[in-house]
Amino acid sequence: MVRMVSATELEPTTYAWPVEAAGLRVKAGRHVAVNGLDLRLGTGVHGLLGPNGAGKTTLMRAVSTVHRPSGGSLRLLGEDATNGRVLRSLRRRLGYLPQHFGFYPRFTVREYVEYMAWLREMPKAAIPGAVQRAVERVGLTGRAGAKLKTLSGGMLRRVGIAQAIVNDPDLLLLDEPTVGLDPEQRVEFRTLLRELGADSCVVVSTHLVEDVVAACTDVVLVDEGRLVWQGLPAELVRLGERGGTGDSPAERGYTSLLTTHRSAA
Amino acid sequence: MTDHIPAAPLAAYTAGDPHLDDATVWAVEVHLENCAGCRARLAELAAPPLRTLLDDVQVTIDRGVRTGPEPARRRAWRRLAHRWAVWSVIPWVATVAGAVLAAFALDRQFPERPSLVLLLAPVAPLAGLAIAWSRRSDPAWEITAGTSRAGLELLLRRTVVVLATVLPPLALAGWRLGMSPALWLLPSLTFTAATLLAGGLIGVGRAAAVLGGGWLLAVALPAVLTSDLPAVVQPSSLPAWAAAALAGTLLTVLRAGDHRRVN
User: Which residues of B touch A61 (CB under 8 A)?
Assistant: First the structure.
């Protein structure tokens, strides 16, 4: 089969930032969980850090187009995500793993990933190959035919990652992807993240500062729905050398940033 | 790109000439991708060591294909079921089928009372609709809601499933009671369309509750209490139902964009 690289694949993008939010406000129920957030994310792996209730999950839901922002502007891959008309074509280029990964217990791994590829309107001919590749990338080749209800928590998490990357998304959102993974799998997952971040925008929301320092190219710290700090992982480590509480320089950097922010507010 | 590759660059490319510049290599490769004739010329130019290598590769690939794992079996029926079925509505559909059966039995027993099947028909699909497109019943709603098929396409698929399971019991009951199919079908379709239309604004579940509750309180309950068949379910109101069903369906399609996000 001969495949030619098409002109659209080589085309430069017409947007500067895959994710661009200005004054973004998103409600979770009645509570305004994201309140006036300004954020710009480029290509690479972005670690989204913040305490519980900082609005990370709500932000991820807004960026994944599941929640409608109640104010401000949100541009994703150059499209206005508050405009309903562009959602269908925009969603084909998104991958999303929610914090609560719901699944259908009777589906096999392959069937589930295939169903998600179909929901994202991948071309019919490309689906089987893409499903196999996604399952292999998360290391579940041996269990591809197993029903989801027979899998362990860590394996389910990996199925969730597989369904998120099956359509080779330009914007990939992973909410707590490393929960339940054993140390070896976490190291493998970091390698996968670096691969994915080479040519797409990956946003990883997590509590684990060491994951961010190891695998991310950029750190985003949010608290109470606002951006507190954005910078390189090395800068976070450097901040930690000066003070703060924690067991590693990165953790000390994280706590010192939060303390400074809270005392200023 | 009508010109084929001249002999000199092709020979240089085949031999792996280091003096060949990148632009030419690129042009040669792009052309080769799409031209079987030039690929054949390339094969003729290839030196014997390269051919031996290619033969070896071919043998290895063939062996891998023979001894490797079997391709995953296609299970078309399972896939069809996954794309269409809404398992969460089954309990509701069973309840509705039971209610229709009970209404049918009562109608047979007391033919002079207002027909319960007719009073039930408009609201029969509503519970299924509310379940089929709600957060609580779909464990993967958060992933599903962020995909491009989410919204009207999935909603319509699920509506078709609900109608396909709710309408046959009604049809059977209506046929055994000797009613005109339009009498129960048109109100049923009108209420389905109205629920989807209002659901785009206030959520399908809420719309189903308001419309279903309204019908039961304002029409069905007085009819049962007073034993008069209300005018709205008599044959004389059929043209109005037909118009409402048509208008409702058209408006639902026009307002399809409301369902892009789950309410």
Answer: 142
Q: What is the mean pLDDT of residues A19-31?
A: 90
From A92, A100, A103, residue closest to B148, measured CB to CB: A92
Judged by CB atoms closer than 8 Å, whether chains meet at A91 and B148 is answered as yes
Which residues, 6 or more positions from B139, have their beta carbon under 8 angstroms from its beta carbon? A102, A103, A104
Orientation of helix B181-202 relative to helix B204-215, angle to 10°: 140
Percent of chain B with pLDDT over 70: 98
Cβ–Cβ contact A145 with B under 8 A: yes
Instruction: Report the amino acid identity of residue A228.
Output: V
Q: Is the distance from CB of B89 to CB of B162 less than 8 angstroms?
A: yes
- Identify the helix (H) or strand (E) that includes residue A223: strand A218-223
Q: Which residues contact B184 (CB under 8 A, 6 or more apart)?
A: B117, B118, B121, B170, B174
Secondary structure class of A28 (helix, strand, coil) = strand
What's residue A9's pLDDT? 72
Distances from the Cα of B1 to the Cαs of A157, B25, B38, B59, in angstroms?
Answer: 48, 15, 13, 34
* Interface ipTM: 0.81
Residue A4, pLDDT score: 61
Cβ–Cβ contact A89 with B under 8 A: yes
Whether residue B92 has pLDDT greater than 50: yes
Question: B152: nearest CA in chain A?
Answer: A88
Count Cβ atoms within 10 A of the Cβ of residue A28 and give its class: 0-12 exposed, 13-18 middle, 19 or more buried: middle
- Count contacts between A and B (CB, < 8 Å): 85
Interval B190-195 mean pLDDT: 92
Which residues of chain B make contact with A100, given a CB cutoff of 8 A? 142
Report residue B248 as tokens. 């409702």
Residue pLDDT, tens place only, B99-129: 888 888 888 888 778 888 888 888 888 888 8
Given a cut of 50, whether residue A96 has pLDDT beyond it is yes
Closest CA to B237 of B190, B173, B177, B167: B190
Q: In 3D, which of A197, A195, A192, A68 has the Cα closest to residue A135? A: A192
Instruction: Return the bridge partners of A32, or none.
Output: A27
Q: What are phi and psi of B226, to 5 degrees?
A: -95, -10
Amino acid, res. B132: A
CA-CA distance, B221 to B110, in Å (whole number)?
17
Give the span between the Cα atoms of A82 and A80, in whole angstroms: 6
A residues 151-180 lying closer than 8 A (beta carbon) to B: 163
Under the banding of pLDDT at 50, 70 and 90, the label for residue A1 is very low
